[in-house]
Amino acid sequence: MSRLNTARVLFATRFAEMAEYRAEVVIWMLSGTLSLVMMLVWMAQAQAAPGGQIRGYDAAGFATYFLSTWLVSQLLVVWVAWELDFEIRQGTLSAKLLRPLDPMWTHYASHVAERLVRLVPMLVLVTAFALLSGARFTTEWWAYPAALGLAALGFTARFLYEYAIGLLAFWTESSTSFQELAWLVYAALGGMFAPLDFYPAWVQAVAVWTPFPYMLGLPAQLLAGKAGPEDALRGALVMLGWLVVFWFLRLAVWRAGLKKYGAVGA
Amino acid sequence: MTTSPPDPAVHVRDLRKAYAVHEKEPGFMGSLRSFVSRKTRQVEAVRGVSFDLHPGEVVGFLGPNGAGKTTTLKMLSGLLHPSGGEARVAGFEPRRREAAFLRQITLVMGQKQQLIWDLPALDSFLVNQAIYEIPDDQYRATMREFTDVLGLDGILKKQVRKLSLGERMKCELAAALLHRPKVLFLDEPTIGLDVNMQESVRAFVRDYNERHGATVILTSHYMADVTALARRILVIDQGALVFDGDLGSLAGQAGAGKTIRLQLRSPVTAQALAGYGQDVSVDGLSAQLRVPRAEVSERAARLLADLDVADLTVEDPSIEAIMADLFGHRTPPALERA
Fold first, then answer.
1. pTM value?
2. Residues ≥6 apart with Cβ < 8 Å to B46
3. Does domain B10-250 match CATH 3.30.300.10?
4. What ipTM score was computed for the predicted complex, to two decimals?
5. Which residue range or ranges hold the ABC transporter domain (chain B) (predicted)?
6. I need a surface site. Which of A39, A93, A117, A132 has the fewest CB within 10 A?
7. What residues of chain B have any CB closer than 8 angstroms to a CB in chain A?
8. DSSP label at A67?
9. What is the pLDDT of residues B63-117, one digit of tens each?
10. Is B257-316 a domain of CATH 2.160.10?
């Protein structure tokens, strides 16, 4: 009961804090336009292609796919590595270490609360983009909770591995360069530049051994009506496996890092 | 029948902390050289410190910048892992950071620690209430107590970023002590505050210590903090403990001397007083000088005989003067116990 109360208070407080930044959150959303740029590029390619299609995608199909990846990527936004990099190097982590609660939970509550602040403007923007681009989302009702569930698993997995990356600041001058490399792999293998089946076969073969297609590409394909319930179920099982891996990875890096912590500054 | 003394609230034996620091020559070439081959140097920040603090004791922890005070406090609060030695606080080994240990301690460092910057301080208190699982009735009682002593009325609902430095420090203290810790590590709790606010913080710490029987270890550059709160003083220099005793005994340390204040009937020059003592200062008909403790009577008698003195008083040196004397040397002496 007390754990639930702690979670409730943490979430409520972080929601209040994020709501203070609501305007910045919308601007931040608009700055994440890679999917939208890729949408315009591929729509133009499809319109210029013989038959108006590339590998089964017409312009509206590309619009649907890339708007879906944009929508899912909004749910997967994680900035915890930047915060940890700052906290460790500046020593502000110390105040959090003095409390009988793993600082991870405060960060997690902030991220989840931010999703709620993001929700309404996100739905307004995706509706506007869909009307402008001619995107057609699936009419299968089950695809929406399935995509949302996969996005929730994907977000948590991404949060955990980004957390582990942020903790590298215990050993390095700055961990954010690792974070940028991780983002590139996430965006490429998640399908943000193009649907995964457009990649060379060997890249696809490598990608299935990573969590990225399941956290970003698969929920986007579900929303676009290009993946079925069995794909969603298999993806969820894979993501659960990755969650366990990242949970223990984060824990191991955290425990090792604390021994290195210099508690400089504050 | 004899009763054994209570277990110490803080037990420290031969505590050590060494760490590597990277060294780089300034400028572009220095950066290039550092990129190819990085030089590191081992620094011994704390070198075998030992002491015990009894429950309810308030101790001043003094030393020059870089002496190892903050490093010691960080080890005792579990933030830093010691390189060697033993530390137990409230019966726990700090480096393990067990939840039960963290509920018994607090460490206050500076004025931007616990509070959520964009929200009223009250929100941060509610978060701490939830994290420390403080029952509602205890939370309300503690808030009433802190509001009275610290004067928190009217500031709890203001955004933290809009609070003055002093108001923020009051809220930081309240947030750090909301769970009623038994051991307080206070690292420069009054730094940057005006005189009135410093006095409020001192009164709060004194009141908390009396009400809750908490053990307090306090570092401060403001000697008024130390003299107002602590009877026992630990002095650390270059990572080693060089004094452990009461304030009065600290004044008796070699070289500290006493101050003679003079009210004169006719003016004299500083040069004329130089033969009677050190650190002479003259301001109109007032003068003061420092004399060795063992020669106070003889020097005072000479002054009275040689000069036209209206009044003469002898004072113990200020704690600042004692510190200046203690740290004038650079070789740490053996530990003095008094």
1. 0.85
2. B15, B16, B17, B68, B71, B72, B75, B82, B239
3. no
4. 0.84
5. 10-263
6. A132
7. 19, 74, 77-81, 97, 99-100, 102-103, 105-107, 109-110, 112-114, 116, 118-119, 123-124, 126-133
8. H
9. 888 889 999 999 999 999 999 999 999 999 999 999 999 999 999 987 667 888 8
10. no
